[in-house]
Amino acid sequence: MSIFSSNNHWFKIALSVAEINWQENNLAIVEINGKIITLANHQEKVFAVAYKCPHASAVMAEGYIDGVGNIVCPLHRFKFSLDKGRNVSGEGYYLKTFPIEHRKDGIYVCL
After folding, report:
1. pLDDT digits 0-9 by tens, 53-74
2. How many CB atoms lie within 10 A of CB 71?
3. CATH architecture assigned to 10-110
4. Residue 33's beta-bridge partner residues?
5. 101 neighbors 4 (Cβ within 8 angstroms)
6. Which residues fall within 8 angstroms of residue 99, CB to CB, at 6 or more apart?
């Protein structure tokens, strides 16, 4: 049984991690089917999160990934877990995350 509703679809975003246009901070912005999201590359694993911070709408790709693998908002430095979106710096917000699959023919995200 799938945990995703029938309204969710998988979209191919790249052939490989190297094909993604990463910024120096290991973050990237992509538009998929009209939706803009942020990609994060931590230890050669790709994560997909919301484009904007849930607190004050800062663009997450303008932040950075800290040493333990959290994405950090550029505005107020709120930290979020890349895999679950949980706010780990204590403010109580959640950053939307999207499932990623590394398949033989590329990297896919589910929206």
Report:
1. 999 999 999 999 999 999 999 9
2. 29
3. 3-layer Sandwich (2.102)
4. none
5. no
6. 4, 48, 109, 110
Q: What is the token pair recorded at 108?
A: 């896919």
Query: What pLDDT, on the 0 to 100 scale, is given for residue 6?
Result: 54
- pLDDT in the model for residue 1: 33
The model's pTM is 0.91
pLDDT in tens, 72-86: 999 999 999 999 999
Tell which residue, 77, 102, 82, has the closest CA to residue 12: 102
Query: What is the 3-class SS of the chain, one letter each residue?
Result: CCCCCCCCCEEEEECCHHHCCCCCCCEEEEEECCEEEEEEEECCEEEEEECECCCCCCEHHHCEECCCCEEECCCCCCEEECCCCEECCCCCCECCEECEEEECCEEEEEC
| Cβ contacts of 14 within 8 Å, gap of 6 or more | 20, 106, 107
CA separation for the pair 104, 56 (Å, rounded): 38
